[in-house]
Design brief:
two-stranded parallel sheet; 22% helix; 21% strand
Length: 167
């Protein structure tokens, strides 16, 4: 989902070698030139052409949409387990000491909202997203749709996030 998030541009601006991947055509090309390598297409399909050895993979608010057809003509694959398949691809693309930074919606129960997104609960997060990865740190933060209490740094306690009822 490199189109909607500034992470690729920020990392590239700071000297990192970046490969951004998005299903959709780059909608920022007319505003400023890309400063990083970019592939357009389905991450899982494209990952089979990549040789791996990535030090880090970032996925910000993307995996929860995989396989649901969220993006219409750009997203033809319908597969309820495409999020888990994407995580397996990320696992294989990382170096042994690499890191994966993933954000997904989280709440009291796992559910899929039509063709738009998934919300993960504790079990679904483990079974579908974390899978083979060793978790170094989980950070919970409040989204626009959540009403969980936050601490002085703007973070949500895991036990409060566990009580958020998605809907």
């Amino acid at each position: 989902g490199a189109n909607q998030e500034p992470s690729s541009r920020i990392l590239s601006d700071n000297g990192y070698s970046v490969l951004g991947i998005d299903l959709r055509p780059d909608d920022y090309e007319n505003r400023w030139p890309l400063n990083y390598a970019r592939l357009e297409g389905d991450f899982i399909q494209l990952s089979s052409y990549l040789t791996g050895g990535f030090q880090a993979i970032f996925s910000t608010s993307a995996v929860e949409h995989f396989g649901l057809g969220t993006y219409g003509v750009h997203d033809p694959i319908r597969d309820p387990n495409y999020d888990s398949k994407a995580m397996d691809c990320m696992w294989h693309l990382l170096k042994n000491d690499g890191n994966c930074y993933i954000t997904v919606p989280y709440g009291k129960r796992f559910f899929t909202q039509g063709d738009h997104w998934r919300v993960y609960d504790k079990d679904a997060l483990q079974e579908r997203i974390i899978r083979k990865f060793q978790v170094v740190e989980k950070i919970f933060f409040q989204s626009a749709q959540a009403s969980c209490p936050v601490d002085k740094n703007g973070f949500v306690k895991e036990e409060d996030a566990d009580e958020f009822e998605p809907g």
